[in-house]
Amino acid sequence: PMAYTLYTYIFQISFFNMMSLLSIFVILGIAADDMFVYMDTWKQSLEHEILLMSLEKRAIWTYRKAAHAMFVTTFTTFCAFMATGVSELMPIAAFGIFSACYILCNYLLVITSFPAVVVIREKFFVWRRLRAEAKQRESEAEAQNTAVVADSQRKADVPVADVDMEIAKNEDNSRETSKLKQSAAIKRSATQLRAKDMSASDKFFYTTYSYKLRQFRFLAVGLFVVWLGVAIGVTTQLTPPEEQENWIPEDHELRETTKAMEDNFSKSEDDGAQITHVVWGIDGVDSSGISDRWDPADAGDLEWDNAFNLSPQANQQSLWNFCIQLRNIQDNDIVRDGQVTCFIDTFKTYVESKGVSFPVPEADFLTHLKDYTQNSSAGQDELITKRVGLIKDRLRYVSFKVIGGDYVAAVKMMPRYDDWQDIIKNYSGTAPHGVNNPFQTSTFWLWMVSEEALVKNALEGIGIAGTISFVVLVISTLNIILATYAIICILGIIISVMAVMFFNGWDFGTAESIAVVILIGFSVDYVVHLCHAFIDSHSRDKVNRTRDALAKMGFSILGGAVTTFGDGCMLFFCTIIFFYKFAWIVTSTIFFAVVWSLIFLPALLMIIGPQEDTGNLKVYGRQAMEWYRAKKKPRN
What we know:
By secondary structure, the chain is α+β, with helices and mostly antiparallel strands. It is 69% helix and 6% strand.
């Protein structure tokens, strides 16, 4: 409700469709990830004894740490979706802005209401349990003291010799125990000392997982490099769809019914073919007066071509000649078997049947045209199909209907569009005044432009989100090397998911182009969390900083990933192909985000990660200032 209110009343967007509902699955995963991060930070506060003295201090410390980490991922994801909001395609832009509203509201709730819930839980439930445990320990201590007093009284009655023997025995046991403790302390490594207070999951990432990853770090990075090369190779082979996308599976009852009708019943002449209209009398559409970009019904105001005039005999003859010219075109992609519907041809036949020669006199043209549209079935059909526009006793526009080839991919459609533009240009150059300003239009051109816009939108989204992510990472980590490694991981995740699209046999259509922008947001989160944990580590060498980062964020990343992966799996049961594809995209994105962030990035950091102040922009800035001051200092 918060996101929808922001979307409707702040951004003033009235458009809302099925695509926007997909944001729910996106935000479920991101919200779960943020809550895992906050709760892990809350648990890590237990490692600082000073924070245990005050619930308020513990809450403030957790809030500052977690809010900063979540802000970086939220901001990059927000920018990724807002980059989609500038798309030329209105539904895609609306989806991006609505998703961005979701991301913003999620962050606001996670840093306001969720911390309050955690504190309430701690104060009224956990604290009571801890107090009960403290009382129990106090009772046990009193019972132990009572037993010690009783034992002391008993020993007071023992002879001195027996007491001396008991003391000697205790001293021997004490020395033996001391030796054992010293031996254990010597054998215990520094790693075990650091890991002793960790939870089981953190200890796993800090010890077992880190050891294995360090052992095979070169192999891991090598395998990822090979996979990245393969993924780049197959990703470049993704192409836009060569036919209109189907949203229902082939084995669905509706598809089977449609196929049976196509196989057993005759098709209309224009079934599935391109229909191109050549129009005279319209000069364009004035979009400057559009008050609501998000209203599909508000397409702008029609602009009439006031120079259009079909009454002169030369103009009538010119249109008829052009009709015959179109029918004689041999290219079936432009005109299929001469199928051109020209009102001027049936008008010629009608007036000649009335004993009037064609072209009719200029003064009588409008009278004969009205008679044709009122008293002939062909003329009435032209009015009904709006190929002839008689408005207030004035001929405003006319059009020809041309049936062409089937739909092909945008890359193959562009030459066909250029051929049509050449046809119109050649006719306009020789046509008399009044009919020398036609244009051609087709719904296939809309698909062509949409496909190009989808690809452009995906590339722009990657570019904008990638650039913003890099800048944010540099600012937040103040380490150029770490930010570079993070961007390599993010690009690796994106390319890996696009490779999955290719291996599934998909074209780069509507679902895929939307997915690219969504997966940018998902791919950023886990990588950024790990980089932040690396920077926050108190260790100085690259290996221990990596292990600290894995211990701190490993379980949070896995927890958020499992939640989002489960959300995506629910979409596999959907019938509509768009949702099924979205399920594949979400689950594969989460899978590769986890693999790249928990295997490749730590392995890379263990090999060539920044140590001490390497790559630290703050240190470099301080050194630059010292150099500048030394240079400006006058020599003795």
